[in-house]
Amino acid sequence: MAERLPPKQRTKISRQVMPEQDASVRAHNFHEVNLGFDRALAEKEAQRCLACADPKCVHGCPVGVKVREVVDLVLVGDYLRAAAKLREDNVLPSVTGRVCPQENQCEGSCILGKRFAPLAIGHIERFVADYERRTGQVGLPKRAPATGKKVAIVGSGPAGLSCAGDLVQKGHDVTVFEALHEIGGVLVYGIPEFRLPKEIVRDEVENLHRMGVEFQTNVVIGQTVTVDELLLQEGYDAVFIATGAGLPRFMNIPGEHLGGVYSANEFLTRVNLMKAHDPEHYDSPVYDCRDRDVVVIGGGNTAMDAVRSALRLGAKNAFVIYRRSETEMPARAEEVHHAKDEGVQFLNLHYPVEFLGNDDGYLTGAKLTQMELGEPDDTGRRRPIPIVDSEFVMPIDMAVIAIGTGANPLVQSTTPDVKTNRWGYILADEETMRTTKRGVFAGGDIVSGSATVILAMGSGRKAALSVHEFLASGNW
Hints:
Mean pLDDT: 93
Largest sheet: 5 strands, parallel
Strand content: 15-25%
Structural class: alpha/beta
Helix content: 25-40%
CATH class of the largest domain: Alpha Beta
Radius of gyration: 23 Å
Distance between the termini: 50 Å
CATH architecture of the largest domain: 3-Layer(bba) Sandwich
CATH topology of the largest domain: FAD/NAD(P)-binding domain
């Protein structure tokens, strides 16, 4: 148990550093990079909290975690109650403590951060959730009396799981439908083991199952069964569409058809979900990276996941090619830092204009052009402009395209009264998450486009509240 220090003493404590695997070791394995706080580190970091009367960190959290209350419980050593407090608002604390971009959300709103390093809220969250997991004493929220209402959730990513957790607590019967063979969506197919061990995801899914959520895998809504059939034939009173934005986006340049060119979605799905990273136990086909030169095109977290995975699969050289400077990179600073430490090479202000291949149809190189930055575009980042006569050929053996994703049209194509925008994303009210079809809600990346895990979870919580109000009142 630690006593809260006077404010001036709290600010004299440095932010505690997350222990991690040595870079020279972890670059060759898929074990988790960050090792987590122990009790001493967690309590010392908790001492830094200023105990604000109006905690801005709570407002910065898309799911509204009561950060100060969690920290107070850590200070008195009551980690299980702290975990239970977390779960009141966040059904995936072990996940978000690892992959949430806290620096832009809760920690970005931390008052301490105005003059010092912000409170390491994500590290504390992970410590508390991991402590709970190790004890096996998971403080699951109580479930309200059964309402007799049935809700179908399409997609088992963070938005779907968050919505399911909130709705089952309100007494509704909730079934989550997943097209793939494992629950978790992007958490299992998109994020590598070294950032988010799949055992963590499975444990959190099991916790939801214990709360009463039912799961059905290998069900492709829009093909196996339609949204209309769920509502009219299967007896569901509401449907929440949370199918994500998993449609690969390509560059539309010559040579993308060559062997050795992947979309990031395919590459990461093969490595993560199909276990290509574990060739001793799984025979999942993936292009052999060993002793090859691999490039990943893009500057987001997905690009970092892909290039760091290629390195661990034995790449001789692993490059990130990004058309802007590092300042404009959307990837988390921690992921870029980890990638550099592991030996990833960054070729910023460059962009491929053509992939080159041999007579057998396999990739042998990329024709790159150098870029310079002009005026900001509609994203607020400076627009990349090609430099005339700057092209050159870079010999490579494999390329992964990680420039973003689009909306998978399957559900929308079989539910024409659910309206979409010109990019194929479902139109839903920002607050209620209601679509243009009665009883159908949508949220997460299928509405917003590619975003973060925690923003998708926040969307799922909004949808759960709105679904509950609809089921209680019948009003649309």
